[in-house]
Specification:
Elements (H helix, E strand, L loop, with lengths): L3 E4 L4 H14 L4 E5 L7 E2 L2 E5 L5 H10 L4 E4 L5 H6 L1 H22 L2 E3 L2 E2 L23 H20 L3 E2 L1 E3 L1 E3 L12 H11 L2 E4 L7 E5 H13 L11 E2 L3 E3 L1 H9 L6 E4 L3 H9 L7 H7 L7 H15 L10
The protein binds 2-amino-3-ketobutyric acid.
Amino acid sequence: MKRIFVTGALGQIGSELVVKLKELYGSRNVIASDVKDIGKDNYEGVLFEPLDVTDGERFFKIVKRHKIDTIMHLGALLSAVAEQYPQKAWDVNMMGLYNALEVSRELECALFTPSSIAAFGPTTPKDNTPQDTIQRVDTMYGITKVSGELLCDYYFKKFGVDTRGIRLPGIISYKTLPGGGTTDYAVEIFYEALRSKEYTSFIAEGTKMDMMCMEDAVNAIIKLMEADPSKLIHRNAFNATAMSLAPEDIASEIKKHIPEFKLYYDVDPIRQAIAESWPNSIDDTAAREEWGFSAKHDLASMTELMLEKLSIKLNIEYNPPAA
Ligand code: AKB
């Protein structure tokens, strides 16, 4: 990777990926874009170009103008919002990806695009879900993720485009809030733990989903894109996880820091149904073996990090327990 173009750069992952890419590859070699026009040509110290990813012509022009060699295509609608607006989700997620693939083919770029644990459905084995298994998804987001995986593999085999992807779990971060996902509760819970010492979860007790700290997700994306292609048996997309958590698991870890914290439930049937169609835990052996994936953060270190960083961000007094 020498010159990198990031779509969806204002989103939860994009906003932290851009900073890390800038640190590693230099601010002149990273170009950020998003459908939201921030009204200036600079974001986090890198060049910013507004882009609606469904606009293939503009996508092509930007990538050509900046002599990009790697596209990190993050612009997409997440699971809950995709279920609310399925037509829009198909349009943005599929047309956006198709444009990213076509631009990569024409201008010979490598392409990273995230898949998700949403690429698994109700008939997929639930525990320790294998890398290669049944993917009969029943959500619009899942349909765009499975179709995207197949399309990316097709462009690799047919046109030699260097496509790579990760089935990302819920990503936990303190910088930018996720928007419209099913795993969003696992971020909100930390904000509310500090603000009001209680949280009402829209996901039911006992519902396990895979999660990962943002730092691990960003490092994994970069590591996969820098991996030796001759070692990759799979491409689109790799299972990768750090922990499998239900709401009460996070709550009991938070209680170690904020003993008065209380967890309540008011389950949202739409997001609960999505969560129930996803695995409890996935097996990421292929990612570990083929490109050395590993995650630094577990539940304990992630909770410490979230509470410490968010207390600064929200300006809320918080005294971490003595070590
Ligand atoms: C979502 O909840 O939609 C995302 C995902 C797991 O892909 N965080």
